[in-house]
């Protein structure tokens, strides 16, 4: 049985379950984060229907079972996720969790979607704290830096404004997030503001392993590393991706073939996808979107029990015989190009 993390609260947590969870030192932050963490992109209509009561139960159960890192953003549901999460956290000891939110990505309208200015960043931080009902967040991240007109505004306006919030006690640590890992690396190297963590998504998964090339840089800078969306935003799940998923047809088709093969063998593809990420070195935590207790149970079971021999054989077949058909396994550039086309159109 493992040691108890600093987030452990006697009388609130299930001590036996907390001791079963693995925790990792999160870069230079001093935080020990659970190997599995809670993403709240589904605490709104982004991924279909959701229920406040289910979200609340999911947050409570996740924390009681040892998950201690929660990620949200103003972008998810355009404020809804933060508001819902704020309601879910009512009555929970503040010591029991670490929470991360973001700045810079906001509205559905492409012309209002991104704003990296100092003014908007300040307003966003205040609004996030109000929605969450908190005095501070543990991590404040600049969201999807690749969409900035230039990294210069991120480096000269957004990050210094986040640093100012940190000095005022509104955030403990600073991070950056995005899809192209090369852009994140460039931002980290060029920043005069100390960056403590990095989040990238779908980049250490059964489908794509781009981030491995950049792990030495993350280690050299002693960054906390959040590996998000091992399920590739639904591509590697039984349910499949949402309509808005940016992956091109060839990637979607191959992932559909993987999904059908798993269904034929009575194996949950999502479980295989999570297991793959959990076995990889590098991430301090694997961030998984969960908005129901069923999803939480599925992922906790996968975390604690691993996979059977049959599931391993299916996993190997999916990786080596199906997903390997793809020569390009990312959709880098597609969303950014579409965004600028719309904005300038």
Automatic annotation (TrEMBL):
<dbReference type="GO" id="GO:0010349">
    <property type="term" value="F:L-galactose dehydrogenase activity"/>
</dbReference>
<dbReference type="InterPro" id="IPR020471">
    <property type="entry name" value="AKR"/>
</dbReference>
<dbReference type="InterPro" id="IPR036812">
    <property type="entry name" value="NAD(P)_OxRdtase_dom_sf"/>
</dbReference>
<feature type="domain" description="NADP-dependent oxidoreductase">
    <location>
        <begin position="35"/>
        <end position="310"/>
    </location>
</feature>
<dbReference type="InterPro" id="IPR044479">
    <property type="entry name" value="LGALDH-like"/>
</dbReference>
<dbReference type="Pfam" id="PF00248">
    <property type="entry name" value="Aldo_ket_red"/>
</dbReference>
<dbReference type="InterPro" id="IPR023210">
    <property type="entry name" value="NADP_OxRdtase_dom"/>
</dbReference>
<dbReference type="GO" id="GO:0005829">
    <property type="term" value="C:cytosol"/>
</dbReference>
<protein>
    <recommendedName>
        <fullName>NADP-dependent oxidoreductase domain-containing protein</fullName>
    </recommendedName>
</protein>
């Amino acid at each position: 049985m493992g040691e108890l993390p600093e987030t452990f609260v006697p009388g609130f947590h299930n001590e036996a379950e907390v001791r079963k969870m693995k925790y990792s030192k999160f870069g230079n932050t001093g935080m020990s984060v659970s190997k599995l963490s809670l993403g709240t992109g589904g605490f709104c209509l982004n991924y279909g229907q959701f229920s406040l009561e289910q979200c609340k139960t999911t947050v409570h159960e996740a924390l009681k079972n040892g998950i201690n890192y929660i990620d949200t953003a103003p972008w998810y549901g355009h404020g809804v996720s933060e508001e819902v999460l704020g309601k879910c956290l009512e009555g929970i000891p503040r010591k029991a969790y670490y929470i991360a939110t973001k700045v810079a990505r906001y509205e559905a309208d492409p012309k209002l979607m991104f704003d990296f200015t100092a003014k908007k960043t300040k307003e966003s931080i205040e609004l996030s704290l109000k929605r969450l009902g908190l005095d501070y967040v543990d991590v404040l991240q600049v969201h999807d830096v690749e969409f900035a007109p230039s990294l210069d505004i991120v480096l000269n306006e957004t990050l210094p404004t986040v640093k100012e919030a940190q000095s005022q006690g509104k955030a403990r640590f600073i991070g950056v997030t995005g899809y192209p890992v090369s852009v994140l690396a460039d931002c980290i190297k060029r920043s005069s503001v100390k960056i403590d963590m990095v989040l990238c998504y779908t980049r250490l998964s059964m489908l794509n392993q781009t981030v491995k090339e950049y792990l030495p840089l993350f280690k050299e800078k002693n960054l906390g590393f959040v590996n998000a969306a091992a399920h590739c935003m639904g591509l590697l799940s039984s349910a499949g991706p949402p309509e808005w998923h940016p992956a091109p047809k060839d990637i979607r088709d191959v992932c559909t073939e993987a999904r059908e093969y798993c269904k034929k063998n009575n194996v949950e593809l999502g479980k295989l996808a999570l297991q793959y990420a959990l076995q990889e070195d590098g991430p301090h935590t694997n961030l998984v979107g969960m908005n129901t207790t069923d999803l939480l149970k599925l992922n906790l079971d996968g975390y604690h029990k691993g996979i059977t021999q049959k599931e391993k054989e299916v996993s190997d077949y999916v990786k080596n015989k199906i997903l390997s058909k793809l020569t390009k396994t990312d959709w880098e550039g597609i969303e950014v190009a579409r965004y600028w086309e719309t904005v300038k159109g």
